[in-house]
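Design a sequence for this backbone.
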């Protein structure tokens, strides 16, 4: 068992590296609900998340 999830798609866009994920997030809108597909423990799973603005650094 791996302690990590591996994101394989974000809003039906294939994710092969961190740059793909950053581009997909940046192309999305704050408040948008997005679909994220990932591998965990040899099982393909899908979840949904609503994007929010990052809080300013303290």
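Sequence:
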């Amino acid at each position: 068992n791996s302690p990590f999830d591996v994101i394989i798609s974000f809003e039906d866009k294939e994710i092969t590296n961190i740059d793909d994920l950053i581009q997909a997030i940046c192309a999305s809108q704050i408040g948008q609900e997005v679909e994220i597909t990932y591998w965990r423990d040899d099982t393909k799973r899908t979840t949904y998340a609503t994007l929010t603005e990052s809080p300013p650094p303290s």
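The CA atoms of residues 3 and 29 lie 30 Å apart.
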